[in-house]
Structures are given as structure tokens and as C-alpha cells.
User: Fold this.
Amino acid sequence: MPVVHMASIVPISQSVGANRIIPTVAIPYPLGNPTLSPAEEKKLRRGLVEKALKALGADVTEQTVF
Amino acid sequence: MKLELHKAPVRSLRFGPQTTLENDVLVINQQELQALLLEDPRLAAVTVDLAHPGESIRIMPVKDAVEPRCKLSGGNEVFPGFIGGVETVGQGATFVLEGATVLTTGRLVAPQEGIVDMSGPGAAYTPFSSTCNIVLGLTPREDVTLHEAEATCRMVGLKAAHYLACRCKAAKAARVEHYAFPPLAEAMAAHPGLPKVAYIYMLQSQGLLHDTWVYGVDAKKTLPTLISPTEIMDGAVISGNCVSACDKNNTYVHQNNPIIKALYARHGKEINFVGVILTNENVTLADKQRSSSYAVKLASMLGVTAAVISEEGFGNPDADLVLNCVKAESAGIKTVLVTDEYAGANGASQSLADSCPEGTAVVTAGNANATIVLPPMAKVLGDPAQADVIAGGFFGSLRADGSMEVELQAILGATNELGFNKIGAYTI
Assistant:
């Protein structure tokens, strides 16, 4: 079953063996950013989720950072 | 830079009409100290209690520990950016009330503060069971925000520590320790044949009340920098840390950093100790990459062959520790890492959140997930109800008889990653 790992510290995603990796914003707010307006933050979040969905359907042959 | 530490021993505490040091007894004018601390308009109330080694006293939740120090000579006061101005410290002479500790406590930012037991099985796990403690119970005013409350309590601890030392500084020190940090040109030429060694000193800087201050500057907003170890002894690094108690570096531990002491003890004999590099532990990958590269670059500029790297905290900072290790080793600098472990109650799980094959020399300060039952104490200073919400506590931690089952994580300094621990182990 394909899995996407969304996390802010890519080297840890790599060391735990994730195959599809989406780098996110920061450890306390991986899918948000308190410095943005709510509208901008929603855009950021949607963008990351859409990227993750695309990564889910992608063929990978090795650990890949999207 | 040359610094003398004039150490006057404190073997006991009592309240009295005048704050002074009499035959190793620190006498404290309770009203004067309270009135001084209540000058801060953000505080509603302050209590001052005394706790000695061996007494049936539990102190919780403890925010910070501070050793009373003040300057005798050398310009700027201790704790630059807070008590002293922002000019350079680490020179001249500093008076130390050795054996006394100011502990700040009360209902602060409860989930991540710690426990100090003055006797019983828990006492063995905290270095502050063997000091004479001036315990400040702090109640910020209700309209003070959480971050302001933390800043208030941080400042009050420093103020009390400085006040106690200032009032006693006429006392004769029992011993004077001498530390020197020469200009780099001299340091580089000294001790030919001995390996040059630096210390990469990681500071907690995750934000959200996990913060450290350097000369009054928030460490998360700094690039890694060089600092003289004598500046550290004068309180250039201050804890503003509300994070798991076992492995946060409180201000006392910075003032008395055992890694710096150990490097000095071997300086000129086994190694040439040429520098301390402060670096941070921020929350984005870019920050971690930048700081680790910059810290290792400074070590390379010093031309060291080896570095000791100490971590503060766990989880997020494990990534910084590993980046520092990998980059230093890739630059030809041998590393020794000092950390602790979160390996589950039975010790069988992965110890760190990240790992690397280059990390071949690691010192562990223990497993913070190991549990301990702390028996009831005759007296509790602070707020025992916090046991359920303290990091390392869990629902039901506080039992009806006053005993508690907690992880070592909840005990102040239990797995300190500078090695400021009371319990050790050797492989035989």
C-alpha cells in the first residue's frame, strides 16, 4: 500500500524508510504557518495535501522527496 | 580572558534579620527578598521557603535552578542582558555561594516543569537534592500572558540569585578557581602535539516556551557563535525553558557546565581545548541545516581534530545532533555526542528520533522513560496537583496517599545531557 510521509525534517523521514516524502513547514506546525493570514494558510495547506495526493499515485523506485 | 571564581560554601540556610553569610550558614531576610521580587508589577505573590538535603520535602513544579553569583570585579554584572547590561562578561572575579540554589516554582506553565525530592529514592536522580535550596513560589497576576509569566519567573530567579550573592560578597571565599581563555593566536600555538578540541554546545531554541537566551538574545534568532567558557560561568547563557525536566539545561547547569569543566581539566595534558561554539535547535529543516553547517564551519576554522557535542532536549533536537555529527565527521572532525534516551519504559525501543552511522562515540545520560515511584513527603512546596500534567507524569500519577509514579523525565536533571547527573554507570 503506497504511503506518503509528510514531515518537516526530511533526514528523519529518510532514516525511518519512507518512500514518498513531502517536506512540510516546521515541527510545531507541519501543515500550517502562524505568520500567514488564515486564507493564505489554507492555500498553503491545500497545496501540500494536493502534492501528497499526487505523490501517492506516483511510481517510485527509491526513496523520493517530492 | 581571565576569570576567578571566589567560592564561599553554603552548608545550611535560615531566615534572619539580615541577609548575610555566617559560618557557612546563609541567613536570609525573607521580607527584604520578597519585597525586592514583588517590585516586578507582573507578580501577584511570592513565597520564600527553604529546603535542605535529607528533608522530607517535595518541590514541584520547578521551573529553573540558579546558582547565586555576582561580580567582585571585571566590569559588567553576571547574567548579561538580564541583571547585567549587555557588555562582555567572563573577566575579573565572580563571587559564588556554592551549595545554595534558587529554585523557581509555582503554577507556571505546568506541563513541562520538574520535581525535586530532597530525600527518598527520587533524590538520587536530581542534583538539586544535595544543594540547600531557596524555593520561590511565584504567582503571576491573572492578566499576565503565558509568555510574560515565563519571562517574569525567569527574571525573578536571576534577581534572587544575584541579590543573595551581592549581600554576602564581603564574605571570604574558601577557595578561588582560576580559568583563562587566551586569544586564539596564543591558543593555536599552545601545546603543540596535543589534539585541538572544541565544544559544540547545543541550546534548546524550539520556541513556544522552549527557549534559551544568550546575552539577552533569543538563541533561535542567532547564528552559531564562538564564546569564551568564562562568559558561560558568568551567566551569559540563561534558561527560559519549559520543557521536560530531566534533560533541560537549567541556568545552574549552564553556570556549572560539567563538559567545560572536564575539558579544562584535560587542557594542556591530553588535549588543547580551543573553543566553545554555541548553536541552536530550531524547528525548520532550513534552520537546522544552516546552524549545523555554520557550527561545523566554525570548528573547521579553529582547525580542531575533535569536538564534543552536547544536546539539549530530545526528539526534534535529535535531528540537530545527528546533522552536527554527520557534518563534523565529514569535515574530518571526530565527534563524541552526549545525549539521553527515550527508549520506552523497558528500554527496548529506538533511543533517538534520528540516527547516523558516523555517530560511533556516544555518551548516554540514561533512559528518561524508565519509571519510578516517589513515596509521599511530609511537605510539598509548589503544587502537587501538577503531577498529572507534568511531562513524564500520567493520569493517576498522584495517588491518594501522596505518592506518585512518574517517568524519570519528570525529575529535574535526571538525564541531563551535560552529564550533570548523580547516577552513572560504567561498562565493565
In short: The mean pLDDT of chain B is 94. Chain B touches chain A at residues 206-208, 283-285, 288, 316, 319, 322-323, 353-356 (CB under 8 Å).
